[in-house]
């Protein structure tokens, strides 16, 4: 097959018998071009379906008006809603986004950063993988002067804007809710210990226990990598205790839904025997039976805030250093599982 030819200003110039510099000036509305010539150039450009070379224009203007967004998993509603918020925030100001998925792999995250650099994006908005511990790549971007915003799973090692969920308050509120329902043996399905969100949610849980005079029991805490086999192992271990939990709260909804399913398979009544609570308010939480009590984290707003911070950097609105942490406040949504 014959390769499609991209129409250039040279093609327009040849058709009209004028110089390519005249065509270039006409297309950029240079006042020194004769009006009749400009009209002829614009009509020929339309006839030939001429499209400007955006890469060439970006080299001239030193900007592409494209932003790189890196997320762990686009299939998860949480990340999809954040991307939607980012796109709505920056799209109003004429910016477009290139979405890259790391698939929870630090190596792919690194490759995405390199690919987006080659695409000459104007800035990066990044949510790191659950296993990212080395931030050399994002530090390199910072040293090169790229505008950076970190969200959800953040890099704490750089003075850049960070947008996070209401992590501490979320688990504090959820644990307090379970205590008010008469629960005293509250288990926690936590995440990887190195993740900041996991640390803060763990602190919210332990603070609520302490303030209510409930002794902390390490046996009731399970740190996971958000994998299904981790959840099943934790539930099996808790049910085998001489005194099993009377409530299980999790730091993510997918884990809580799996806990519901596992308990029901074992003939355990929810919430009579064991209450269950999640974190996130994913769409599925209102569809399971019983409906899942969960802490809503408002991912769309997280995206809007992240996009706003990026625009502030690009417009140089920060007089000193950008805001370190912006928290998107959430709320407890109570359903049948508690």
UniProtKB/TrEMBL annotation:
Keywords: DNA-binding, Transcription, Transcription regulation. One of its GO terms (molecular function) is DNA binding. It holds the Pfam family Peripla_BP_1. The keyword Membrane does not apply. Residues 7-61 form the HTH lacI-type domain. InterPro entries: HTH_LacI, Lambda_DNA-bd_dom_sf, Peripla_BP/Lac1_sug-bd_dom, Peripla_BP_I. SMART domains: HTH_LACI. The keyword Magnesium does not apply. Gene3D superfamilies: 3.40.50.2300, lambda repressor-like DNA-binding domains (1.10.260.40). It comes from the Bacteria. This is LacI family DNA-binding transcriptional regulator. The lineage of its organism: Bacteria, Pseudomonadati, Bacteroidota, Sphingobacteriia, Sphingobacteriales.
């Amino acid at each position: 097959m014959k390769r499609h030819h991209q129409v250039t200003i040279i093609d327009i110039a040849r058709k009209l018998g004028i110089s390519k510099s005249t065509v270039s000036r006409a297309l950029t509305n240079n006042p020194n071009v004769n009006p009749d010539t400009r009209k002829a150039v614009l009509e020929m450009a339309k006839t030939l379906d001429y499209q400007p070379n955006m890469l060439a224009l970006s080299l001239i203007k030193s900007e592409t008006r494209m932003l790189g967004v890196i997320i762990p998993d686009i299939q998860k509603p949480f990340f999809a809603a954040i991307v939607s918020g980012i796109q709505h925030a920056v799209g109003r100001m004429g910016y477009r986004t290139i979405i890259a998925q790391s698939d929870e792999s630090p190596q792919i995250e690194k490759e995405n950063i390199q690919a987006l650099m080659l695409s000459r994006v104007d800035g990066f908005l990044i949510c790191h993988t659950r296993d990212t511990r080395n931030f050399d790549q994002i530090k390199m971007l910072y040293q090169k002067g790229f505008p950076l915003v970190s969200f959800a799973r953040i890099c704490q090692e750089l003075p850049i804007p960070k947008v996070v969920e209401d992590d501490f308050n979320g688990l504090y509120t959820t644990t307090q809710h379970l205590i008010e329902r008469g629960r005293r043996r509250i288990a926690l399905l936590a995440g990887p210990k190195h993740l900041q969100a996991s640390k803060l949610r763990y602190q919210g849980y332990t603070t609520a226990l302490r303030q209510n005079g409930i002794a902390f029991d390490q046996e009731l805490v399970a740190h996971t990598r958000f994998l299904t086999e981790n959840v099943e192992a934790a539930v099996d271990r808790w049910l085998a205790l001489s005194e099993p939990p009377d409530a299980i709260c999790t730091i993510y909804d997918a884990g809580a839904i799996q806990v519901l399913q596992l308990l029901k398979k074992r003939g355990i009544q929810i919430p009579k025997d064991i209450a269950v609570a999640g974190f996130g308010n994913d769409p599925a939480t209102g569809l399971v039976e019983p409906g899942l009590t969960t802490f809503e984290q408002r991912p769309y707003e997280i995206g809007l805030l992240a996009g706003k911070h990026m625009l502030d950097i690009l417009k140089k609105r920060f007089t000193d250093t950008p805001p370190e942490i912006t928290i998107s406040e959430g709320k407890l949504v109570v359903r049948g599982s508690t």
